[in-house]
Every structure is written in structure tokens, then in C-alpha cells.
Specification:
disordered N terminus, binds ligand MTE, Sulfite Oxidase, Chain A, domain 2, 385 residues, 15 strands, 2 domains, alpha+beta, 12 helices
């Protein structure tokens, strides 16, 4: 993913691949490894990585957090500690106020970065994955959201000033109903579901996440796309004052993504407003993000402000930046390697899976082939990846 993605990919390499694999490549294409492998290997414990530009000149050296939260402290111990501290704090407050509150001490209660209201009326979706879920803590602290920085911990650490309300969604292009709409008006009367999907990042890690939202199709249909609407383009908000990552030109902002209209209308394609029953934290793309579970995670664009129906295939951020590495389709495919690493397996980030045991085989369309493969009949994934 462009120059800076090489930093995060190095993390994956550093943890999972030996240097010869990295330098020799997997796909038969000429390797484009711009990370100084020896340096990265030597320093991975410190979380040090060195980033090079296209010519191989060192650009900058940065610290990143290669260890996810649940790998430092077991989730149960972390929760018990939190519960104990919460109990002590609540006891203290109750004591001060002279009240006799019963202190809630549920070990399974997810820990929130900020208290948010619960999403009302969530319906359980029957197709949900039954795999072990990724903890709320990892889902909200190990993120890719370059608008807040390129480190996995940056989005959680640097997004507190982002304001997801009020929020206006602009709808334009080949549709009968276009204009600017207040998000809360659009969400009124929408039936929210809980859908547990696998999220497979192109960097070869994955999570199992209980999203809360509704099928994108149910919103798009309201705008009555015309027969000319062959694609849908999405844009993330541009607010450099609140999004520190946008102050540097690591991406040609705003972040852009796109889907073919049949992909956008597919019943699996979700617009998420929450996760784990809570409104989306800023780092996960508040207030509205896409989730396309059979595609690499970069297609799941966050904090959407614009939807545009178009006749032609729209340019998308990563595809424009590195077309040989990130295709428009980006369907999860273990048989089509990234030019710099294999896509045959992934590091699953889930409770109880230690960093050394968590590698699992990647499945075609991320396990959703039965539902979506028919949309790609006749499309060669080696060229249109
Ligand atoms: N959307 C925006 N606007 N900016 C980003 O950097 N990163 C993408 C995607 N959506 C990204 C984005 C990538 S690479 C991934 S893997 C997922 O968000 C990660 O979503 P998560 O952080 O909620 O797990």
C-alpha cells in the first residue's frame, strides 16, 4: 500500500516470514521489497521499522506497535483488572455520594475507549460467523486508518478530537434522488442488525468482528440509481484539523473506494454504524463505514461523506497509488499473491490465539465464495485482482 504501507507490511513480514521468503517473492513477479529486511528483523522486538522511497532511499524511521493489546495481557486477566479497578472507582464514587449503588462487575463487559450509548433494537443475523471473535479491545486498538497515522495504534490514540456528528452525506451522480442528507435523518427507521463477519486485511492478518449496521443496498435503493449507475464511488471526509494523518501527503486525500453496482447491492455488503453493540468508535470509521467481507479490508472505507453513482469504474486510492499491488476488485484470493508476500495464509487476531499459533489458511473470497463467486464468472483474478 504505497510507500508507507510498506512499513506496516514489514510488521507482518517481521512476525511471520523469514527473510529469504521476503526477498525472493512469491508470485514469480520481480520482488519489490523496499524494506531493509535485515534491519527490520534485527529490530522487530523494538517495533522499529525503516521506510524507503521507490528509489530505495531511506525516507524515515518510525516506531510502530507490533504487539496487539491482547497479546500482552490475556483478555480475562485484563478484564478482571479492569473490573476490579472499576469496582474500586465506583465504590469510591458511591461512597462519596453517600449512595448504596451495587457495583456492576461483569467480566465479559467490553472495555470502551469512551462511554457510548448502546444501539437499540439490534437484530441477530442468521449468517454470522461462529468463529471466535476478536476482542473489542483489539478491534478498537489495532487499526488501519491513515487519516490518523500509519501506526496500528495511531487511530485509537489520535482520533479523540474527531467529531462524527453532525454528519452530512452527499449523494450524487446517476440517481434520481441526489443531494445532501443529514445522517441521523437517513438512519431513522433503519433496522440495525448484528453481523459477525471475518475481516481479512491485505497485510495478511484477520479478525472476526460483530458489526452493527444494515445492508448498503437498503440505503442505495432510496436514491433510485438509474440504469447508467454501473459503479458506486465512496469518499472519506477530509478534515486535516481533526485528522492529523491528512496533514501529510501520504495519500492523495480524500481516501476513495469503489464497488461495481452489483457488489454494492449484494446482501452481504454492509454499512456499519457500530461494533459490539456500541456506536462506532472514531478509530473504526465513525459514524458510517463500509464492510465488504469477501474483499481485502482496504475496500471497507471509513467515515463516508460522499456516495457517487457513476457509469465508469472510479479511481480508488490504493489502486491509483500502487496498481500492481492493489487491484480494484481486491477479492480475497489465496491463489493470487501480493507481489511482496504470500496470501495463502493469515494471522488471525482472536482471543486465545497466541501470536505463534494463530496462522490459518486463507479461504477463497474470505469464506464467502458460495454467496459471491457467481458475480465474477469469466473474470480472470490474475489480471483483474
Ligand atoms: N478507510 C480510510 N478512510 N482510511 C484508511 O486508512 N484503511 C483500510 C480500511 N478503511 C482505511 C480505511 C484498511 S487497509 C483496513 S484493513 C480496514 O479499514 C481496517 O478497518 P479496522 O481498522 O476497523 O479494522
Amino acid at each position: 500500500m504505497g510507500n508507507l504501507m510498506r512499513a506496516t507490511h514489514a510488521e507482518v513480514h517481521g512476525l511471520n516470514r523469514r527473510l529469504p521468503d521476503r526477498t525472493s517473492g512469491h508470485s514469480g513477479k520481480k520482488p519489490r521489497c523496499l524494506i531493509d529486511g535485515a534491519y527490520t528483523l534485527q529490530c522487530q522486538d523494538l517495533g522499529l521499522v525503516r521506510v524507503f522511497d521507490h528509489g530505495g532511499t531511506p525516507m524515515r524511521q518510525r516506531l510502530f506497535d507490533p504487539i496487539i493489546a491482547s497479546e500482552i495481557t490475556p483478555e480475562s486477566a485484563y478484564m478482571q483488572r479492569r473490573t476490579l479497578m472499576k469496582g474500586l472507582a465506583a465504590g469510591l464514587i458511591a461512597g462519596l455520594a453517600g449512595c448504596e449503588h451495587e457495583v456492576e462487575a461483569k467480566a465479559e463487559t467490553p472495555v470502551l475507549p469512551t462511554p457510548k450509548p448502546e444501539i437499540p433494537g439490534l437484530k441477530t443475523w442468521p449468517g454470522s460467523s461462529r468463529e471466535t471473535r476478536t476482542s473489542f479491545r483489539d478491534v478498537t486498538s489495532y487499526n488501519n486508518y491513515y487519516e490518523f497515522g500509519t501506526g496500528k495504534g495511531d487511530p485509537a490514540a489520535r482520533s479523540a478530537n474527531f467529531k462524527p456528528r453532525p454528519w452530512t452525506l452527499e449523494v450524487a451522480g446517476e440517481a434520481e434522488v441526489t443531494g445532501r442528507f443529514d445522517l441521523d435523518d437517513l438512519l431513522k427507521g433503519m433496522a440495525f442488525e448484528e453481523r459477525i463477519y471475518r475481516l481479512r486485511c491485505v497485510e495478511a492478518w484477520s479478525m472476526v468482528i460483530p458489526w452493527n449496521g444494515f445492508p448498503l443496498a437498503s440505503l442505495l435503493k432510496r436514491f433510485k440509481p438509474t440504469s447508467k449507475a454501473k459503479y458506486v464511488r465512496f469518499e472519506t471526509i477530509e478534515r486535516p484539523r481533526e485528522m492529523p494523518g491528512q496533514r501529510s501527503a501520504i495519500i492523495d486525500w480524500p481516501y476513495r473506494e469503489g464497488l461495481r453496482i452489483d457488489e454494492a447491492m449484494h446482501p452481504l455488503t454492509l454499512l456499519a454504524v457500530g461494533v459490539y453493540g456500541r456506536w462506532l468508535p472514531n478509530q473504526n470509521g465513525a459514524p458510517l463505514r463500509l464492510v465488504v467481507p469477501w474483499k481485502y479490508g482496504f475496500k471497507s472505507i471509513k467515515s463516508i461523506v460522499k456516495i457517487h453513482f457513476s457509469e465508469t469504474q472510479p479511481p480508488t486510492s490504493w489502486n491509483v497509488m500502487a496498481p500492481d499491488e492493489y487491484g480494484f476488485y481486491a477479492n480475497v484470493n489465496s491463489a493470487v499473491d501480493h507481489p511482496r508476500w504470500s496470501q495463502a495464509s493469515e494471522r488471525r487476531i482472536a482471543e486465545g490465539m497466541s501470536i505463534f499459533k494463530a496462522r490459518i489458511a486463507t479461504t477463497s473470497f474470505n469464506g464467502y465464495a458460495e454467496q459471491v463467486a457467481a458475480m465474477y464468472t469469466g473474470l480472470d483474478p490474475q489480471t483483474l485482482y
